[in-house]
Write a structure and sequence with these properties.
The chain is an alpha/beta fold. It has 2 domains: 82 residues, Ribosomal protein L30/S12 (60s Ribosomal Protein L30, Chain: A); 147 residues, 3-Layer(aba) Sandwich (Alpha/beta knot). The chain has 9 helices and 10 strands. Strands 7-6-5-9-8-10 form a 6-stranded parallel sheet. Helix 5 runs parallel beside helix 9. The longest helix has 14 residues. The radius of gyration is 20 Å and the shape is elongated.
């Protein structure tokens, strides 16, 4: 039986502070929840399912469709919903030949979710975010990743200190800027750090000072009048494609 306290807890997890204080986040839908159940590195605190769910677990608590509608934040209620323990993540410096994605104040949850999903597609295993980047465990981000959040480790840390250490260890740092070199013709390394900036302001000055290679994604044709910039999620996909296709 779902209690009033259960409903209140699930709803409260749309708020970052509630997630941090409880140590939990919400995952919805048989595909995502099924992947979490099958992965022993993720710990489930509560698991709610309705009749017909494909999820099989001794932790499963059967609820009515009406109760699931009240629990869920989705327009169409799923057949399963899990409260999952937040993992502890430390910002990783790139290993030899590894490409790490770095996000500097990316604010929009939808953009962040798409970026994580894109990173997974291109084999990126670590994303390092500034503390002011959107929370990857917000419900909208979790859903937008389509399960990629289970494979891509996202960590938050002050970027200047982290990038300074990366530079000391010889890592190449790339960022997309309006005054950079054409990304399609620039020689790119196999490994390093790719930095993507805020939707409106781009990469901050402090972070730009630690960039060794500035890149520019040119429009086509180069001299035409058009949009001032690309959406950060689209720019990330184009940038990663260039790195992976060389």
């Amino acid at each position: 039986m779902v209690t009033k306290a259960d409903f209140q807890l699930v709803r409260s997890l749309s708020d970052k502070q509630a997630r941090l204080s409880s140590g939990l986040f919400v995952a919805e839908g048989d595909k995502l929840v099924g992947e979490i159940v099958a992965n022993p590195s993720w710990r489930i605190a509560r698991l709610f399912v309705v009749e017909g769910s494909k999820i099989s677990s001794p932790k499963a608590e059967v609820v009515s469709p009406k109760e699931m509608e009240r629990l869920s934040a989705l327009k169409s209620a799923p057949r399963s919903l899990a409260l999952v323990e937040l993992p502890t993540r430390k910002a990783q410096l790139p290993s030899e030949g590894e490409l790490v994605l770095c996000l500097d104040e990316v604010q929009d949850p939808g953009n962040l979710g798409t970026i994580i999903r894109t990173a997974d597609w291109y084999g990126i295993r670590h994303i390092v975010c500034s503390p002011t980047t959107a929370d990857c465990f917000a419900p909208k981000v979790v859903q937008a990743t389509m399960g990629a959040l289970l494979r891509v480790e996202v960590a938050y840390t002050p970027l200047v200190e982290w990038l300074e250490e990366a530079r000391r260890r010889g890592a190449k740092t790339y960022a997309t800027t309006l005054d950079g070199e054409n990304i399609h013709t620039t020689i790119l390394s196999k490994g390093g750090i790719v930095i993507m900036g805020n939707e409106g302001k781009g990469v901050s000055r402090e972070v730009q000072s630690l960039v060794s290679h500035k890149l520019f994604i040119p429009p086509y044709p180069a001299d035409r009048e058009g949009s001032e910039s690309l959406n950060v999620a689209i720019a990330t996909a184009i940038t990663l494609e260039n790195f992976r296709s060389r």
